[in-house]
Amino acid sequence: MLRCLIALSALSPLLAVAQKPSDERTVEQASELVPLCRQEVEARYVARDIPTYQWRASHHDRANTLHVDGLIRAGGEDVTVAGRIARGARVRYITVGITDPRLWSKPAIRSPRARALVGTIHREATRSVS
Q1: Where are the domains of the chain?
Q2: Is 80 helix (H, G, I), strand (E, B) or coil?
Protein backbone atom coordinates (compact mmCIF):
# COMPACT_ATOMS: atom_id res chain seq x y z
CA MET A 1 0.00 0.00 0.00
CA LEU A 2 2.79 2.39 0.89
CA ARG A 3 4.58 1.62 -2.41
CA CYS A 4 1.39 2.44 -4.31
CA LEU A 5 1.06 5.82 -2.59
CA ILE A 6 4.70 6.63 -3.26
CA ALA A 7 4.30 5.72 -6.93
CA LEU A 8 1.15 7.85 -7.26
CA SER A 9 2.78 10.82 -5.53
CA ALA A 10 5.73 10.53 -7.92
CA LEU A 11 3.40 10.59 -10.93
CA SER A 12 1.15 13.43 -9.76
CA PRO A 13 3.32 16.26 -11.19
CA LEU A 14 3.28 14.50 -14.57
CA LEU A 15 -0.50 14.18 -14.47
CA ALA A 16 -0.89 17.87 -13.61
CA VAL A 17 1.24 18.85 -16.62
CA ALA A 18 -0.65 16.53 -18.96
CA GLN A 19 -4.04 18.12 -18.26
CA LYS A 20 -4.22 21.68 -19.56
CA PRO A 21 -6.92 24.04 -18.33
CA SER A 22 -9.67 24.54 -20.91
CA ASP A 23 -8.55 28.07 -21.84
CA GLU A 24 -4.97 26.86 -22.40
CA ARG A 25 -5.96 24.45 -25.20
CA THR A 26 -5.06 25.46 -28.71
CA VAL A 27 -7.21 25.36 -31.84
CA GLU A 28 -5.56 23.74 -34.85
CA GLN A 29 -8.54 23.02 -37.15
CA ALA A 30 -11.63 25.01 -38.08
CA SER A 31 -13.86 22.10 -37.06
CA GLU A 32 -12.61 22.52 -33.47
CA LEU A 33 -13.85 26.09 -33.51
CA VAL A 34 -17.52 25.25 -34.24
CA PRO A 35 -18.50 23.88 -30.77
CA LEU A 36 -16.49 26.60 -29.03
CA CYS A 37 -18.38 29.34 -30.91
CA ARG A 38 -21.68 27.65 -30.15
CA GLN A 39 -20.87 27.52 -26.43
CA GLU A 40 -19.92 31.20 -26.41
CA VAL A 41 -23.06 32.30 -28.27
CA GLU A 42 -25.39 30.19 -26.12
CA ALA A 43 -23.75 31.52 -22.95
CA ARG A 44 -24.44 35.11 -23.99
CA TYR A 45 -28.11 34.33 -24.66
CA VAL A 46 -28.48 32.38 -21.41
CA ALA A 47 -27.15 35.44 -19.58
CA ARG A 48 -29.99 37.48 -21.15
CA ASP A 49 -32.56 34.74 -20.51
CA ILE A 50 -33.24 34.32 -24.24
CA PRO A 51 -33.87 30.73 -25.39
CA THR A 52 -31.78 29.37 -28.27
CA TYR A 53 -32.55 26.68 -30.85
CA GLN A 54 -31.24 25.25 -34.12
CA TRP A 55 -27.53 25.99 -34.34
CA ARG A 56 -26.09 25.63 -37.86
CA ALA A 57 -22.52 26.38 -38.85
CA SER A 58 -19.97 26.00 -41.58
CA HIS A 59 -16.24 26.29 -41.11
CA HIS A 60 -13.23 27.04 -43.30
CA ASP A 61 -9.71 28.36 -43.06
CA ARG A 62 -8.19 31.26 -44.91
CA ALA A 63 -4.40 31.52 -44.73
CA ASN A 64 -3.58 31.06 -41.04
CA THR A 65 -7.02 32.07 -39.71
CA LEU A 66 -9.80 29.63 -38.88
CA HIS A 67 -13.38 30.83 -39.51
CA VAL A 68 -16.88 29.75 -38.48
CA ASP A 69 -20.03 31.20 -40.05
CA GLY A 70 -23.05 30.22 -38.02
CA LEU A 71 -26.75 30.82 -37.63
CA ILE A 72 -28.71 30.36 -34.43
CA ARG A 73 -32.38 30.82 -33.68
CA ALA A 74 -32.63 32.95 -30.55
CA GLY A 75 -35.86 34.23 -29.08
CA GLY A 76 -37.74 33.62 -32.32
CA GLU A 77 -35.22 35.36 -34.60
CA ASP A 78 -32.44 34.03 -36.80
CA VAL A 79 -29.11 35.56 -35.80
CA THR A 80 -25.85 35.31 -37.73
CA VAL A 81 -22.64 34.49 -35.90
CA ALA A 82 -19.05 34.81 -37.09
CA GLY A 83 -16.13 33.34 -35.19
CA ARG A 84 -12.43 33.38 -35.93
CA ILE A 85 -9.07 32.57 -34.41
CA ALA A 86 -5.50 32.20 -35.59
CA ARG A 87 -4.40 28.61 -36.14
CA GLY A 88 -2.60 27.35 -33.04
CA ALA A 89 -3.89 30.15 -30.79
CA ARG A 90 -5.28 29.46 -27.33
CA VAL A 91 -9.03 29.06 -26.89
CA ARG A 92 -9.29 32.27 -24.88
CA TYR A 93 -8.40 34.30 -27.99
CA ILE A 94 -11.49 33.34 -29.98
CA THR A 95 -13.35 36.30 -31.47
CA VAL A 96 -17.10 35.81 -31.81
CA GLY A 97 -19.35 38.36 -33.50
CA ILE A 98 -23.11 38.21 -32.99
CA THR A 99 -25.45 40.43 -35.01
CA ASP A 100 -28.19 40.87 -32.42
CA PRO A 101 -28.87 44.31 -30.87
CA ARG A 102 -30.63 42.64 -27.94
CA LEU A 103 -27.21 41.62 -26.67
CA TRP A 104 -25.85 45.15 -26.86
CA SER A 105 -28.40 46.78 -24.57
CA LYS A 106 -28.19 46.75 -20.80
CA PRO A 107 -29.91 43.76 -19.21
CA ALA A 108 -33.28 44.41 -17.62
CA ILE A 109 -33.48 44.07 -13.87
CA ARG A 110 -36.35 41.66 -13.32
CA SER A 111 -36.26 41.16 -9.56
CA PRO A 112 -38.21 43.82 -7.60
CA ARG A 113 -35.70 43.51 -4.78
CA ALA A 114 -32.76 44.09 -7.11
CA ARG A 115 -34.59 46.98 -8.79
CA ALA A 116 -35.13 48.61 -5.39
CA LEU A 117 -31.46 48.15 -4.52
CA VAL A 118 -30.33 49.75 -7.78
CA GLY A 119 -32.73 52.64 -7.19
CA THR A 120 -31.29 53.17 -3.70
CA ILE A 121 -27.72 53.12 -5.00
CA HIS A 122 -28.65 55.59 -7.75
CA ARG A 123 -30.31 57.97 -5.26
CA GLU A 124 -27.30 57.80 -2.94
CA ALA A 125 -24.91 58.46 -5.81
CA THR A 126 -26.87 61.50 -7.06
CA ARG A 127 -27.27 62.82 -3.53
CA SER A 128 -23.49 62.71 -2.87
CA VAL A 129 -22.76 64.50 -6.16
CA SER A 130 -25.18 67.35 -5.48
Answers
A1: 22-129
A2: strand
Please check whether residue 27 is in contact with residue 89, taking contact to mean a CB–CB distance below 8 angstroms. yes
Tell me which amino acid residue 31 is.
Answer: S
Question: pTM score, two decimals?
Answer: 0.64
Among left, alpha and beta (phi > 0; psi -120 to 50; other), residue 87 is beta
Digits of tens for pLDDT over the chain (130 positions)? 545 445 445 545 555 545 556 668 899 999 999 999 999 999 999 988 899 999 999 999 999 999 999 999 999 999 999 999 999 999 999 999 999 988 877 665 566 665 565 555 555 555 555 5
Give CA torsion, residues 39, 45, 46, 47, to 10 deg: 110
Find, among 37, 50, 54, 52, the residue nearest to 102 by Cα. 50
Residue 25 main-chain phi, psi, to 5 deg: -65, 155
Paired residues of 109 in beta bridges: none
Question: Contact at 8 Å (CB) between 62 and 77?
Answer: no
